[in-house]
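Below is how a single chain appears once it has passed through the pipeline. First comes the sequence as given, then the structure the pipeline wrote out for it. We keep one example in the README because the format questions we get most often are answered faster by looking than by reading.
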Amino acid sequence: MKAKIEIINSSSFKLLPIKKVASLIAKVLEDFKFEEYSLNIIYFDNSQIQELNKKFLNHDYPTDVISFNIDDNPLIAEIYIGVEIAKLQANEFKVSLRNEILRLAVHGCLHICGYNDKTVDEKTIMSSLEDKYLEYARKNS
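Resulting structure:
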């Protein structure tokens, strides 16, 4: 297996960052020394991500991002991004939808790399890493 990232748009939104997300996530995985991986990133609407959230996490509401590690050696994983929630959050934080989707993709990837965000300290570390990679994406646009 080699390094493979596939992005699938199952949402009703059509103009979503695909190449930028793929290249940024490849950078994150490279930095964390993953050489062989298969990662799917799937864009979902509210109803789709709510169904996933309910089925696997027992939360009956739409969410912004859900990550699943299917295997660790080699890394096989999936990241689901709720585009409608991302749009709401982009408006709330006064950033572009592209920026918010990039942040959510990085956030999901960090979970796959072993990071958590249950405590204040863990959230601070993840937020700092998200900011680092968003800055990288901005500089390499």
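Strands lie at 3-9, 37-44, 65-72, 75-82.

See the next section for the split statistics.
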